[in-house]
Write a structure and sequence with these properties.
Number of strands: 0
Strand content: under 5%
Distance between the termini: 44 Å
Radius of gyration: 16 Å
Order of helices and strands: HHHH
Helix content: 40-55%
Largest sheet: none
Shape: elongated
Oligomer: single chain
Number of domains: 1
């Protein structure tokens, strides 16, 4: 993708550059993110886009699911409480899942 294709060419944002959030953190947890999106939101790879700045808030309201439903499902599936992660940041949640798994295998 060349740099010109990232500039909006029409409308009120004409001339503004589109910049995507990084995915370096999410990429480290690719397996967890793929599993999580399937188990929690029933999304297959290619049906969603997540970055290091993505949060549960980006996916709540879909299929009548609210934030507390997401927290409960994560608790049920992964046996971790993420309700204290106020931002709902997915990278923070994946990190917590990873750490729990590492401690369980020790």
């Amino acid at each position: 993708m060349d740099e010109d294709s990232l500039i909006i060419t029409s409308g009120q944002f004409r001339g503004k550059k589109i910049e995507f959030a990084p995915t370096t953190g999410i990429d480290r947890f690719f397996g967890i993110s793929k599993e999580f999106m399937k188990k929690i939101f029933d999304f297959e790879p290619g049906e969603y886009l997540i970055s290091d700045e993505s949060s549960l808030h980006d996916f709540t309201g879909l299929d009548e699911m609210d934030l507390s439903d997401s927290h409960k499902m994560i608790q049920d599936v992964y046996d971790i409480d993420v309700s204290d992660i106020e931002s709902g940041n997915m990278l923070d949640i994946f990190t917590r899942i990873y750490k729990k798994r590492c401690n369980a295998s020790s």
